[in-house]
Amino acid sequence: MIRFFITFFFLINCINYVNAEIVTQTGVHRHLEDVSIREGCEYAKKDALTKAKEKVLGLKILSEENEMCNQVDGKSNCIRNQLFLNENLGHITGLEIIERERDIEKFDNSEEDIYVCKVTIKVNVEKRSETLDSSYDFSIKINNLAFRENEKLEIDINLTKPVFLNLFQWLPYEKNDQIYKIFPNQIETNNYIETNNFQLPIKNTTKKKAKYVIEFPKNVKDNRVDEHLLFIFSQKDINFLPTYLKREDLMKKYMSENSVKLIYKTYSIIK
After folding, report:
1. Of 101, 128, 155, at which residue does a domain stop?
2. CB atoms within 10 A of CB 138
C-alpha cells in the first residue's frame, strides 16, 4: 500500500474485438520444491498466455521481474506474482500446447534446487481495433523491487512522444476496492507528459511536493506481500474512476478505449 504525503502537509463498458491473430509463445516458471511440477507448468502455461496477449493487445510486461528469485530472511524465494495480470484481457480460442520442457537449476549461494518448466503454446487471440502505434515506446524503472515499511517509492519514466498517463495501484489482497488511481492526484494534477524523461513523484514543483510512502497492509498476516502498478498511457485524456472494485473493472474500461497502452510493474513489501 502506498501512502501519500505532501511537504507542508499532505499528507463499464462493452469490449469490441474486430480481428484475431494466431500466436506462438513460450512461458517459463521457476519454483522451489514446495510447488508441484504440475502446478509449476500451469504457471508457465499462463505466462505463455500472458505473453501472447501482450503481443496482440498492445500490453507490455517487464521481463526482469517475471523470473526474479531472491533471498528473504535466509530463504530462497522465487517470485511468481506477475503471471496473471492479463489473464482476463482479450478472448482466447484454439489453445494448443506444442511442447513442455523441464529442467533443474541452482540458486546462487544456495544448495536448493530451482525447478524450471517451459511451455510453448499456439493460441488464437482476438484483439481490439487500435492501440498506441509502435512509435510510442516506454521504459519504466522503480527504485526498488522489495520495500520495507515507510520507504519511499520513486519512478523514472522514459518515453518517445508526449502522452497522457494514468497510474493505478492494484492491491490483490483487498476484498473490496482493489484498484486506486495514484496519478494524477490532488497535488500532481497535470497528467500530460511532454518531456522524454519524467519522474514520480514530480520533483520540480515549487510549493507542494508529493511523496509515495510504502506501508505494509495491516490485514495481511504473511511476512511479504506483492502489489502492482498499472501505467496506462493514452493519446487522449481518459476519464477513469478514482477507484475500482476489481482489476477486471478497470480492464473493461481500458479495453473499451483506443490508442492506449498498458505497462505494469510489480514490487514486494517485506514486513
Report:
1. 128
2. 18
